[in-house]
């Protein structure tokens, strides 16, 4: 994050950039990537943003990997200060159903592994303390996912419709979604574009545009798309593998 901060400042004449750290140390911040409650972390980030006078007039945001869906929750739940342009890189907007690098589901081990993981993913002890469990999305048990997952179904409007979530996301000037074409960490990689497995099976995929989230416009993504404010970008690499040149050419233009 320090390198990205320096890159942005070099390209934008020293503009103010803040990288939000959760906890009081780098070690605590790293631990929070794996352990904690995503809802509590979103509330913490919201408080940090509201307390920063440099951001009072609005800010651009970039979410890297799982930080993308967490910052999206910030945009939906915390409209002040306003998020203006928002880019997510390799994020899991529809969750994941697979262990990182184990993407070959013709191999029995990979299929068995994700079925085993699903057995405990929605247990309260895991849901309240393991970050990755809070965006584990089992397409073979959609009801269990919606009932047991404490984070993702809420921000994706899958149980109830919170109109403020939709209106706050619609306030964005641009939403940029980056998918890494060789990503085998995010399974399926199409989750970075709000795509996912069709309900009831774990082979065939559906795009965002084919999903209920879009056709019923539960979150405002269809409206953003039709207004030319929703952008689908790719990077030809593995998870979070991109060059400074790619970042400068594709992401920085939205941060002005």
Describe the structure.
The chain has 256 residues and is of the alpha/beta class. Helix content is 37%, strand content 12%. It has helices spanning 2-11, 26-31, 38-50, 67-77, 108-121, 124-127, 142-148, 152-155, 163-170, 212-215, 221-226, 244-250, and strands at 59-64, 83-89, 174-180, 196-197, 205-206, 230-235. Strands 1-2-3-6 form a four-stranded parallel sheet. β4 (196-197) and β5 (205-206) form a beta hairpin. α3 (38-50) packs across α4 and α4 (67-77) packs across α9 (163-170). The longest helix has 14 residues, at 108-121. The protein starts with a helix and ends in a 6-residue tail after the last helix. Keywords: Disulfide bond, Glycoprotein, Hydrolase, Signal. Belongs to the palmitoyl-protein thioesterase family. It catalyses: S-hexadecanoyl-L-cysteinyl-[protein] + H2O = L-cysteinyl-[protein] + hexadecanoate + H(+).
Specify the overall morphology. Answer: globular
Strand runs, count: 6
Q: Percent of residues in beta strands? A: 5-15%
Order of helices and strands: HHHEHEHHHHHEEEHHEH
Distance between the termini: 19 Å
With strands numbered from the N-terminus, the spatial order across the biggest sheet is 1-2-3-6
Low-confidence stretches: none
GO cellular component, one term: lysosome
Keywords: Disulfide bond, Glycoprotein, Hydrolase, Signal
Protein name: Palmitoyl-protein thioesterase 1
InterPro entries: AB_hydrolase_fold (IPR029058), Palm_thioest (IPR002472)
Task: Briefly summarize what is shown.
With about 260 residues, this protein is α/β, with parallel strands linked by helices. The protein has twelve helices and six strands.
